[in-house]
Amino acid sequence: MTYPNDPDPQSDDTRVVERERVVERPAPVAPGSSNVNVAGGNRGYVATGPGPLYYARRVVSLLFGVLAVLIALRIVLLLLVANQTNGLVDFIYNVTEPFVAPFRGVFNFDMVSPGGGSTLDIGAVVALVGWALIYLLIMAILNLGDRSTTSTA
């Protein structure tokens, strides 16, 4: 039922208005710290990016990672009796030999051959562990000089 003074529902002047609310909040402050400058105006440049030791650690990690993979491949190839006349197998043996040679003779036996031509190169296994320990030592030394307190190896 409509009355003569009622507004027509189709000619209603109601508009939908959307408001966007933007709230800016200050950056959070860690507990126990403050934004107050207590240094007395000492405003020097503080580097926030990675330092040179970060890149040195990355390069050392890359080199030792490649060495570890090559020595592990040497161990697997000897266990699987790989063809030594193959170029890739020969390359891996020749590249890793200078890194395995210092660790030969640590034990009274250097190789274990259970039969069938398969060989476990004990010198290569000891070299893998030895180079991993040398890597950890170098990384610890590089971490000593780093300015970041949260650096990882």
Top keywords for this entry?
two-stranded antiparallel ribbon, 2 strands, mainly alpha, 153 residues
Task: Describe the protein.
With 153 residues, the chain is mostly helical. The protein has a domain at 52-144. Helices cover 42% and strands 6% of the residues. It contains three helices and two strands, in the order ααββα. The chain has helices spanning 52-79, 87-100, 122-144; strands spanning 111-115, 118-121. It has a two-stranded antiparallel ribbon. α1 (52-79) packs across α2 (87-100) and α1 (52-79) packs antiparallel against α3. It is elongated. It starts with 51 loop residues before the first helix and ends in a 9-residue tail after the last helix. The mean pLDDT is 79.
What does the secondary structure layout of this molecule look like, with pairings?
Layout: H1 52-79, H2 87-100, E1 111-115, E2 118-121, H3 122-144
Antiparallel strand pairs: 1-2
Helix pairs in contact: 1-2, 1-3
Q: Which band does the percent of strand residues land in? A: 5-15%
Number of strands: 2
Rg for CA atoms: 34 Å
Arithmetic mean pLDDT:
79
Structural class: mainly alpha
3D shape = elongated
The helix/strand order is HHEEH
Unreliable residue stretches:
none
Major sheet size, sense and barrel closure:
2 strands, antiparallel
